[in-house]
């Protein structure tokens, strides 16, 4: 190679494309023939600078040129023509990696002498895959141990609960839903605070694999007892959507709308829905009372009669049926029911008995 393109452009072999372009512009302005009034020397110099720029600005051509330049320098050094590589490859700042390699090689003899002094080490390099497998095996062992321990604790807790000891059951397994429900029932029998009962019931529902419907109904009734009307309504409607064929849920909704919300029309809808699923006394009674409140007396009369046939010990049923007879104008049928209710202790019947049944006969 007659000319070194890097020397022509006055740049280093590690110059970027931006630096190459900047160097070319600077030298082109300096050696352009138009600037130097047709100087042949400047014109030849300009052609070389242009040739250097065209080669180094093309990454592919630059790569080929760099390889030729490097191997030419190495070949001359090996043949004894020069004491070292081409000047373009000398006095170039070394990278951090190159400095570390030189330092590593420099200390090689010191490391070998130290190993001879200390003797051969028995330690082997630890393979990263071996470490990963060991950690995986260890982690799996820990997880299996935890799972087995939890399973044994749950089994012991279940045995204690079967014996009626929910306290010990919760000591062995503090996520045992059935044990929390057993504690809820025990506290309920002792008339515990509704807030305390709700806490245990919430824990029972949270930790149970499949919370039972009666648990959810108990929770709704507790919310109602705590005057959380909206929460109670939401809980009951969610149950209704999830279990549309459950008549007990319909009855609870009917009682909620009839007794708490004072909406007998809605209450009647849910009592009728319950009866469409299965006939039950609570649904019959709720339907009869809803019809009475809606003043649909002709429909309420057979409903109360059916309830009395199922439960003749409820004085309120006789009072309601007697009141229905009065509303329909049948005093002769009303008085036996009203007197029966009064004899059973219904003081609400007394004004009606005195007003309609104790009149002297003409």
Structure description:
The protein is elongated. Mean pLDDT is 84; it is low at 80-84. It has 362 residues and is mainly alpha-helical. Among the domains are: 5-85, Orthogonal Bundle (Helix Hairpins); 142-211, no CATH class; 295-362, Serine Threonine Protein Phosphatase 5, Tetratricopeptide repeat (Alpha Horseshoe). It has helices at 5-8, 17-31, 40-56, 59-79, 96-106, 108-118, 128-162, 166-172, 177-189, 194-207, 213-225, 229-242, 247-260, 264-277, 281-293, 297-310, 315-327, 331-343, 349-357.
Under CATH, the topology of one domain can be stated as Helix Hairpins
Taking all Cα atoms into account, the compactness measure Rg is 50 Å
CATH architecture identity of one domain:
Orthogonal Bundle
Number of helices: 19
Instruction: Give the percentage of residues in beta strands.
Output: under 5%
Structural class: mainly alpha
Order of helices and strands: HHHHHHHHHHHHHHHHHHH
**In percent, how helical is the residue content?**
over 70%
User: Could you tell me how far the N terminus lies from the C terminus, measured between alpha carbons in angstroms?
Assistant: 149 Å
Q: CATH homologous superfamily of one domain, by name?
A: DnaJ domain
What's the rounded overall pLDDT mean? 84
Number of strands: 0
Low-confidence stretches: 80-84
